[in-house]
Every structure is written in structure tokens, then in C-alpha cells.
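By convention, the C-alpha cell line describes the chain's fold. To illustrate:
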Amino acid sequence: MASNIKNKIISVPNYLKTWIKTFRGGLTIFCLIIISIIPIFLQNPYHLGIFITAMIFTIFAASWDFLAGFAGLVSFGQAMFLGISAYFTAYFLRNLAAPWWLSILIGAFASVCFGLFIGIPCLRLKGPYLALGTMVFSLIIFDLLMMGGLALILFGTEGISRVPSIFPVNETYQIKIYYLTLIITVICLEIIIFIGKSNLGTILKSIRDDSTSSEASGINITKYKIIAFMISSFFAGIAGGIFAVHLRAVNPAIFGPLYSFYAIIMASLGGLATISGSALGAFFFIFLGEALRPFGDYSVLIFSIVLILLIRFAEHGILKPILERLKDLWDLLLGR
């Protein structure tokens, strides 16, 4: 087993060299370069904040995409993992003065523990009942946080505010947060993609496609579903930790169903089981919302119409058709 792991590690550089030479690999590198140089030309904190939010939701949407796209487990309560980590991160930063990286990791592992706690009873449910069961747990936490009698323990409706900044607050503060978020986002996406292509990812996809046959072949489907839940909750927790670091405050609203549906919409927009589609879906979702702000009360209506049209004409996500069109254009430019 050790030799197999060693061979996989050795083959990674060769795989990367081959991948970079492909159209998809080259396009990914190009997009990373563009995102990396944005703060050079765009230093307005508000505009940088939009990009930071999009990257945070990229990790969040990818965590849901891994659970639903690879394991076939649809959750309507993904926001609870985002919120639990955000609360733990904010608490450790403000009350215990812990390092930011340790606070985020503690928050992520707290989400994993909660994912294990939620996963065991919820995975006994199937189909829509699993989705509703996860949403119920999220709503229970939301109601507990909103209870005035528990305000001394759970911080009440105001949540945790005045979270200390992790960098000196000056004109470069937002730029530092931007690059920190970008690095963490790239690392998280690479790890999720690697897991998806590993033996674990193959097992999860077999369970997703035919759980009966997988169980008959000797696979402990409950065990692997719980593992998928824990992995998904970990990366949702990473997103929650960065969320708390970026906004420097958290409140119970983060546990609401709206945030869970954000992840579902973003992942579905990009395309399920693609992971990289979550990035495209998150950026499209956040940028479209910002572009429609001038329309005021009509923005939600326009936003809904756009989403309905996209779902109607790109029911498997927008990543694949966009890549196909760009590939055709690239071949045309090269005269192929």
C-alpha cells in the first residue's frame, strides 16, 4: 500500500505536466493568472470584497458538489457546517486570541465532528427525506441561536462581532485577505479534485450510481457515505472560517436555508460532479447579483429569470458548454 501511495505521489508532477498542455489545463492557468493580478489593477476594498466573497462561496459550493455530485447525497443544511466553523473561528480569534490558521482549522474540525454527529442519523434517510432531515438540523441550530435565554452561551441574535483582524488594518489589508483567500481556495479545490479522482472518489461514484450493487459487492456504503459527509463538512468549515475572518463578525443568519440554497444553486449552475464548475457557478452568481443591484426591487425578478433560462438551456451546468465553445474558438484561431 505504501508503494502505491509513493507511485501516485511520484506520478503527480508528470500528470501536471500533461494536464497543463491540455486546453482545459491552459485555460485554468490563464484564469489563475488573471485572478492573481486583479489587485494590481483593482484596489478598491469593495470590489476586492466581491472577489473574496466569490472565492469563499467557491469552496462552499464545491463542498456541497462533492457530497451531492460524487456521493449522491443531497443536503439542504450545508449552511450549518459553514456557520459552526464561522462561530468557532470567530470565538477563538476574539476570546482566545488564537492564530488565524489554527482558528480556521479548529472551526473546520468542529464542522467535521458535527458532520459525523448529523451524518449517522440522517444517512438512515433516503432521497428527499435526507435533504429535509439535514435542513431540519440546520433550522434547529438557527432557532437555538435566536433564543434569548441562551444568549450568554450562544451569543444571541447579535452573534459574535468585533472579531480582531488577522493583518494590520491599512490600505493593503484587503489585498492580503484577497491573496490569502485565493491560496486557500486553490488548495481546497485541488484537494477535492484529487479526492474525486482517487479510489475513494470511485467508490463514492459507484454508490451514487447504484448503491444496491455496491453493497452487494462488499462495499460498506454507510461507512463511505459518512466519510463523504465528513469531507464535505470539513471544506464547508474552511469556507466558514474564511467567512468569519473576512467579515470579522458572524450571526445566526448564516445558518438559514438561504445560504444552503446558495451552495446548491452555485454548484448546479457550474455543473454537478465537476468541482471546477462550482468556481464558475459561484463567480457567476456573485457577479450577477452585484450587476443587478442598480435595478433595486426588480433585481430579484431579473435574477430569477436568468437562472430559469440557464437551467432550461444548460440543464447540466454552464461549464461544459462554455469549455466546448472556447475550445472551438481556440481551434479556429489556430486553424485546426
Notes: The mean pLDDT is 86. The radius of gyration is 20 Å. The longest helix spans residues 221-247.
